[in-house]
Amino acid sequence: MQLETATILEHRDYGAGYRLLRLAAPQIAPQVQPGQFVHLRVPRLEGCVLRRPFSVYKAADGVLEVLYKAIGRGTAVLGAALAGEKISALGPLGHGFPLDLPAGRVPVLVAGGYGMAALYLLAKRLPLTGVVFVGGRSAPDILCVEEFEKLGWKVRIATEDGSRGVCGLVTGPLEAWLAEGRGQGMPEFFACGPNGLLEVVGQRALAGDWRAWLSVDRHMCCGVGACLTCVVKLKDSDGAWVWARSCKEGPVFECRQIHWDRAEEEA
Amino acid sequence: MTPDLSITLAGIRLKNPVMVASGTFGYGPEYADLVDLSQLGAMVVKGISLEPWRGNQTPRTVEVASGLINAIGLQNPGAEGFLQTYLPFLRQFDVPVIVNIWGRTVEEYAAVAARLSAAEGIAALELNVSCPNIKEGSKSFGSNADMFKRVIAATRAVTKLPLIPKLAPDVFRVAEFARQAEAEGADALAITNSVPAMAVDLETRRPKLANITGGLSGPAIKPIAVRLVWEAAKAVKIPIIGMGGIYTAADAAEFFIVGASAVAVGTANFMEPAAALQVAAGLRDYLARHQLGSIRDLVGTLTC
Questions:
Q1: B143-to-A114, B73, B155, B190, B245 alpha-carbon distances in Å
Q2: What is the tens place of the pLDDT at every residue in A176-231?
Q3: Is A49 on the interface with B (CB under 8 A)?
Q4: What domain range includes position B251?
Q5: What is the DSSP string of B226-283?
Q6: What is the band of A89 on the pLDDT scale with cuts at 50, 70, 90?
Q7: Number of domains forming the structure of chain B
Q8: Is ipTM strictly over 0.90?
Q9: What pLDDT, on the 0 to 100 scale, is given for residue A179?
Q10: Which of A108, A197, B194, B217 sits most deeply, having the most CB atoms within 10 A of its CB?
């Protein structure tokens, strides 16, 4: 974990509200493990008091790449930052995905929207290739498919409007693949996307008695474990739960660790 | 000549008058890779209760215009957890450790104060009085003069450590609470805590915090905090640690001018982990520019 003044090398439109930010960050970039994130201080973000966390898309040769969608004021203002500008980066943060895949496992990546970018480094660094299932609202929300294919991964796509791949949710092609015989091995899931998607993948893994590594997305403030904003419930003994910090112990947890709140508890 | 930033506050020697505020710097390990804790004026750890406490449900914080509303709900590992896990870590550093404490009853305050006082390596106790008394109608200790007096008296009776009540901002006359604290034997005052606040999601029409309300901190509350420190400083002789929205040395200087003897950096730590060190360095420059030999020469120099 380091605080580094990074330099923007490139910042370009990626279509449909997505942008690619390339940063020279020679201290942070070599340390990044798949599933970790960086906490950026958005330049000229007046009236805001927090950094903004971003998953790392690529990290190589002292360069960090972040692929993000403009979803709020922070990302909207970040969008105006230009190549050559300095940006304060804190990272790498959190605990990412495990890379030691047990023998006989087939890695299965499941992504929703820009969650796909957060899985790229994992696809690159896992000891073997497998299959990626990616879902999104529409064709422009399906990102970096070719990048995964270049690494030798099979990519199965679903869109809610049917504009690319199978029409429907990503669980459609995933279930079909599992029913087909799932590539002659025991699947090991790695997922990043909306919390609803993570819960479905977790439940499916439990039903099949497989493991699922889920990267959770929570509101975050400090990013280093001090403020206790981003806590998630993990199972404790006897049906009880304990808090864990998604910025520190997470953001990746195995689905058996997570205590999912039932609807009646939320009320 | 380089201006002198060192002070003695409530009998504690500080290298510089810039602390990190409770709840914004964890218990030490969180920021230790980024900031040399030995360079801080003091480390005020997140609030400790007698027993471990889970705090509130999520969402726990929301960013608003120039501020942050938090309702963490005082989650903490309890006195034993702190003493076993965190105090030994903090003792590796040459920095005064101030432990913020809280309770749900007067007796709980006294019990946690007594337990921590038995340990080596704690410089002072900061009393968080902005929490409800579950025995007496859930009124806040910090906004009820009688309960405020009793909680200070009860902790004073069980500890020799310097006691620093942290005054709530939502009181009618802060000077009266400051005088009351001084009369009950407080050694210094921390002013102020976060300001009760809330925010609403317009699409769902639900509160943005699980706890509905929370405490506002950050630049939005700085002018409120400056006014509170000014009023309290006129009323008491004990030193005041000013806090509320300090990001820069200029912010901090305002607090010294109205009468604070030290300051704490809080929410700013989330943006810049080394903010407190930057504030201290900036204060030195400010003193040099104004030809003041010591930070002590700036305290209470407001001209009205």
A1: 47, 18, 18, 15, 21
A2: 999 887 667 899 999 999 989 999 999 999 999 999 999 999 999 999 999 999 99
A3: yes
A4: 7-58+74-198+216-297
A5: HHHHHHHHHH-SS-EEEESS--SHHHHHHHHHTT-SEEEE-THHHH-TTHHHHHHHHH
A6: very high
A7: 1
A8: yes
A9: 87
A10: B217
Domain A2-93 CATH assignment equals 2.40.30.10: yes
Domain assignment present for residue B2? The answer is: no
Q: Which residue, chain included where needed, has tokens 């693949």?
A: A177
| pLDDT score of B220 | 98
Residue B117 in any domain: the answer is yes
CB contact under 8 A, B270 and A47: no
What residues in A contact B62, CB-CB < 8 Å?
A: 219
Does residue A267 register a pLDDT over 60?
A: no
Average pLDDT for chain B: 96
Q: Read off the tokens for B116.
A: 């921590």
The verdict on residue B203 lying in a domain is: no
- State the Cα–Cα distance between residues A129 and B116, nearest whole angstrom: 54
Identify which of B23, B59, B270 has the shortest CB distance to residue A49. Answer: B270
Strand, coil or helix: B107: helix
Interface of B with A in 53-72 (CB under 8 A): 54-55, 58-63, 65-68, 70, 72
Asked if residue B115 has pLDDT above 70, the reply is yes
DSSP B22: T
- Residue A102 is predicted with a pLDDT of 87
Q: Give the model confidence (pLDDT) of B56-101 as tens digits.
A: 999 999 999 999 999 999 999 999 999 999 999 999 999 999 999 9
Range in A104-113, A249-258, B18-27, B135-144 the model is least confident about: B135-144
Q: What is the pLDDT of residue B211?
A: 95
User: Is A2 within 8 Å of chain B by CB?
Assistant: yes
pLDDT of residue A36: 98
Please name the residues in contact with A176: beta carbons below 8 A apart, sequence gap of 6 or more: none
For chain B, give the number of residues: 304
Contact B270 A243 (CB under 8 A): no
User: Does residue B68 lie within any of the structural domains?
Assistant: no
Beta bridge partners of B55: none
CATH number at residue B135: 3.20.20.70
Identity at B84, one-letter amino acid code: Q
Which residue from A54, A173, A183 is spatially nearest to A110, judged by alpha carbons?
A173
Q: Does A77 touch chain B (CB under 8 A)?
A: no
Across-strand partners of A95?
A251
Q: How confident is the prediction for chain A on average, in pLDDT?
A: 93
Q: Classify residue A238 by its DSSP letter.
A: G
Give the integer Cα–Cα distance in Å for B54 and A232.
12
Q: What is the DSSP string of B156-183?
A: HTT--S-EEEEE-S--S-HHHHHHHHHH
Domain definitions of chain A by residue range: 2-93, 105-266
What CATH fold (topology level) applies to the domain A105-266?
Rossmann fold (3.40.50)
Residue burial A92-107, b: 16+ Cβ < 10 Å; e: rest: bbbbbbbeebeeebbb
Closest chain B residue to A74 measured between Cα atoms?
B63
